[in-house]
Backbone:
C-alpha cells in the first residue's frame, strides 16, 4: 500500500466509524461514546466549564482512576475519546479535531511533529510518564535460548528469529503507535543508526528486517486481542509492546520483560493542547498537568500503570528495572517514517491471506447489497502487495461458481484490485443464510494450500443462520481442525438483523473478534479489521 493509500485508509477509519467503533491499536473502550452526549454541556461548545475534551490513546483507559482523583483535587474533568495514535494524527491533520477537542494525549507526538499539517496544530506539550518498547518472552524460551535478560540486544533477537528459534506477536504499525515504535526500534537497532533514522539506514537494515519479520506470527489492531491470541498459540514465544502493557497484562502468562540493551524507543505520553483550544481549556490543562506531575501523583501513576515517572526524585514502581537504556533515534523526516511503514506493509512482513465470507442471501437485496459492494470497493485501496483475497459469497450454501481469488502482484497491483472491484459489483442476492456451513468451507479452502502467511476469515452477514449446519456441527468441525488451522481467526461483522450471540460465539471459539456495523459504517468495520490481518 502506498503512503497516500495509507493516509486514505486512516482517514476512512476515522470518518467512517461511529464513536462506538473508535477503538483500535491498543485495545481501548467505547465509553467515550456515552460521554460525547454529556448533559453538563451548558455553553454550546461541546464542553462544560472545567471540562477538557481529550483525544487520547486507547491504552490510557488505565489512567481513569487517577483522573477521577484529579477532578476532586483540581476541579478539572477530563472527557476522553479513545483512538489509536495514528488515527488521531489523521483527525488532527484533517481539522476534524479542532472543534471536537481541546487537547490530545497520545503515547507520543513524534509522528505529529514530522507533519507540517499537524505540528502547527499542537502547543504546550507536557510529558506525564514514559514507557519504553520492550520484549515479553516466555521464561522457558529465555532459558532455551540461554539469554541473560539484562544483556539481550536487537541483534540477538534477530538472530534467534532468523534461526527459527523464536516467534512473536506485534501490533500493526499502520494503526498502533506501539507497533510503530517497535518497528522504529527494530530498524534502528539493526541498522546501527547513531542519529535520526535515514532512508540509507532503512535500506541497510532491510535484509535483516525481512528476516526479523518472518518470525511475526501474530498481528493485531489492539494489545488486548494480541494478548488473548498469544495465550491460544503454542508457536508464539514472545510479544513486542510497551513495557507497561507487557507487565500489566494478567493474560501474559508470566512473561520475562526484556528491554534490549542497545536501546529502545520510548513513549512519553505528552498532554498536548490544540492551538484551537478554548482559553478556559488552556487554564484547565495547566491545572491538570501540574497536578499530574506532583511527586505524590507520579508515584501513584507508576504504581498503578507501571509506566515510569518523569519527575526527578520519584522512583519507578518496584516491578520496573532501574537500568538505563539508550533512546534509539526516531526517523528524521516524515518521508523516512512513511517509507518505513510502507516497506513494512508491502515488503517486510509476511503476506496476508483472507477469505471474505459474504452473505448474499435474499435479505441482502437492495440497499444492504449496495452498501456491501461500496464497502468492498472502498477496501481495495487498502490491500497490500502480495496479499491474497478471496470473495466467497453465500446464500443457502456457498455460491461456488461466484468464488473468486486474486493476489495483488507488486509489479502490477491494479489488475487484482480492478478484478476485486468487478467481482464486488457482480454480487447478487438470493437464497437463505448458511453461516456455519459457509465458514467451514472457508476453512477447507485455506487448508488446501497452506503457506507462510497471516490467514484470517472475515464473515459478514445480515441475518441468523437458517440453512446448512447448526452451531453444534460447526463447533465439532472447528475442534477437529489441525492445530495450525485453529490459529486462523474469524472476524464476524454484525450487520442488519444478524444475531450478536451467534457471531460472538464464532469469534470467541476461533480466537477472532466481533465488529459492529449496526452503529457505524460497514466500510468502517471492514477497515478496522485490517489491523488484524
Residues:
Amino acid at each position: 500500500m502506498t503512503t497516500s493509500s495509507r493516509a486514505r485508509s486512516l482517514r476512512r477509519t476515522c470518518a467512517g466509524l461511529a464513536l462506538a467503533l473508535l477503538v483500535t491499536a491498543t485495545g481501548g473502550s467505547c465509553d467515550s461514546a456515552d460521554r460525547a452526549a454529556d448533559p453538563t454541556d451548558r455553553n454550546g461548545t461541546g464542553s462544560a466549564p472545567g471540562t477538557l475534551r481529550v483525544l487520547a490513546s486507547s491504552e490510557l483507559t488505565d489512567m481513569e482512576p487517577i483522573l477521577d482523583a484529579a477532578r476532586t483535587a483540581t476541579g478539572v474533568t477530563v472527557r476522553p475519546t479513545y483512538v489509536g495514535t495514528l488515527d488521531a494524527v489523521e483527525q488532527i491533520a484533517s481539522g476534524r479535531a479542532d472543534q471536537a477537542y481541546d487537547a490530545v494525549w497520545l503515547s507520543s507526538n513524534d509522528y505529529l511533529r514530522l507533519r507540517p499539517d499537524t505540528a502547527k496544530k499542537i502547543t504546550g506539550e507536557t510529558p506525564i510518564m514514559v514507557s519504553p518498547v520492550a520484549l515479553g518472552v516466555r521464561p522457558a524460551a529465555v532459558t532455551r535460548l540461554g539469554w541473560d535478560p539484562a544483556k539481550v540486544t536487537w541483534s540477538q533477537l534477530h538472530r534467534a528469529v532468523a534461526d527459527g528459534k523464536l516467534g512473536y506477536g506485534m501490533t500493526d504499525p499502520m494503526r498502533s503507535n506501539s507497533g510503530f515504535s517497535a518497528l522504529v526500534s527494530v530498524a534502528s537497532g539493526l541498522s546501527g543508526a547513531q542519529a535520526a533514522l535515514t532512508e540509507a539506514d532503512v535500506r541497510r537494515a532491510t535484509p535483516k528486517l525481512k528476516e526479523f519479520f518472518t518470525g511475526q506470527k501474530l498481528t493485531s489492531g489492539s494489545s488486548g486481542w494480541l494478548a488473548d491470541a498469544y495465550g491460544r498459540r503454542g508457536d508464539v514465544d514472545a510479544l513486542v509492546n510497551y513495557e507497561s502493557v507487557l507487565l500489566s497484562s494478567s493474560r501474559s502468562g508470566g512473561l520475562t520483560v526484556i528491554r534490549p540493551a542497545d536501546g529502545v524507543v520510548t513513549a512519553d505520553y505528552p498532554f498536548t493542547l490544540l492551538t484551537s483550544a478554548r482559553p478556559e481549556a488552556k487554564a484547565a490543562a495547566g491545572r491538570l498537568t501540574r497536578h499530574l506531575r506532583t511527586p505524590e501523583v507520579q508515584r501513584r501513576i507508576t504504581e498503578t500503570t507501571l509506566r515510569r515517572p518523569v519527575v526527578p526524585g520519584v522512583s519507578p514502581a518496584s516491578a520496573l528495572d532501574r537500568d538505563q537504556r539508550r533512546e534509539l533515534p526516531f526517523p528524521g523526516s516524515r518521508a523516512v517514517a512513511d517509507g518505513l511503514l510502507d516497506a513494512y506493509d508491502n515488503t517486510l512482513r509476511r503476506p496476508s491471506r483472507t477469505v471474505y465470507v459474504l452473505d448474499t442471501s435474499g435479505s441482502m437485496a437492495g440497499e444492504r447489497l449496495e452498501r456491501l459492494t461500496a464497502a468492498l470497493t472502498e477496501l481495495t485501496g487498502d490491500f497490500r502487495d502480495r496479499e491474497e483475497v478471496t470473495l466467497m459469497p453465500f446464500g443457502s450454501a456457498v455460491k461456488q461458481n461466484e468464488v473468486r481469488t486474486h493476489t495483488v502482484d507488486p509489479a502490477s497491483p491494479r489488475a487484482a484490485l480492478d478484478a476485486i472491484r468487478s467481482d464486488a459489483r457482480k454480487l447478487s442476492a438470493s437464497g437463505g443464510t448458511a453461516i456455519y456451513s459457509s465458514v467451514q468451507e472457508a476453512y477447507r479452502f485455506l487448508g488446501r494450500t497452506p503457506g507462510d502467511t497471516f490467514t484470517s476469515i472475515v464473515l459478514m452477514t445480515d441475518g441468523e443462520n437458517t440453512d446448512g449446519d447448526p452451531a453444534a456441527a460447526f463447533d465439532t468441525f472447528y475442534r477437529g481442525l489441525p492445530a495450525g488451522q485453529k490459529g486462523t481467526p474469524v472476524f464476524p461483522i454484525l450487520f442488519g438483523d444478524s444475531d450478536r450471540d451467534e457471531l460472538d460465539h464464532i469469534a470467541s471459539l476461533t480466537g477472532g473478534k466481533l465488529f459492529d456495523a449496526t452503529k457505524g459504517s460497514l466500510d468502517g468495520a471492514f477497515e478496522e479489521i485490517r489491523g488484524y490481518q
